[in-house]
Amino acid sequence: MSSAAPLVEGRINYLGPMAVRPRFYANDHARDVLNLDPHVVGIEDLRGRSPAPSLHHEGIALVAHRSAIADFRDAQQVARQHPAEIQQLIAELSGADAVVVTGPGILRFGERSPDSGRLNNSRPARFIHIDCSNPTALAFAERSRPPQRERMRRFAHYNVWRVFSKPPQDVPLAVCDARTVASDDLVPADAIFDVAGQPEWSFEGLLVRFNPRHRWCYFSNMTRDEALVFKTHDSAQDEPSQVPHSAFDDPTCPPGVAPRSSIEMRATAYWFE
Length: 273
Hints:
There is one protein chain. The chain is mainly beta. It is built from 2 helices and 14 strands. The strands form 3 sheets. The chain has a 5-stranded mixed beta sheet, with no helix packed on it. β9 (186-193) and β10 form a beta hairpin. The chain starts with 6 loop residues before the first strand and ends with a strand. The mean pLDDT is 95.
């Protein structure tokens, strides 16, 4: 990435040494088994950088994307309309043979918002993670693949992150250039989903050890007509894969702005033989 891009300093939490397998919960973080290792790192603001980062180089792209959703807090409207929008977006960006949107929209709110923690899995992620490990990525792809299709040649998982609060954002999302991440940096961990009155379920995600080679970036002043798209896994060996990400406090954000409100959607793209 260009060293000429503006830099902010942000505090993000890596994973420190652990003698047991780490685990973390979607809602009750008091139950987390994590040894967090905070670092203050330079985070490049790539707003307006030329050339822009891309899914084929860094595993990251900021794209213009206007949604017909009037209110992203309206779960019924999101469920009815937004998956088709995301499916079309990822199909256009990836050129895949098929795209499947997996799961509902996930709303998250900065801690100053009364909605942060009130809804399921609604706090910003305050430690660096990747949504799925290699075995989980394969299992999810097999589970969601369209029926009666040929053998998979390639699959890729995408996260589509959008803010619907007005800019600037007090708690943006930092993403790491996938090319700067080594396999030794990654630690398998159990991501556990705990909803009151429902059985807990889990899958294997990845946490990240500190490496000074990591190049972190974000996009300032995002609007609801933009989407930050990044890969959480790509089975193609010649493509970037597994973008670590974490929320952070932007020290340049003026006081008194609206707390960050965001929605993320996840999709899997497929290429067949």
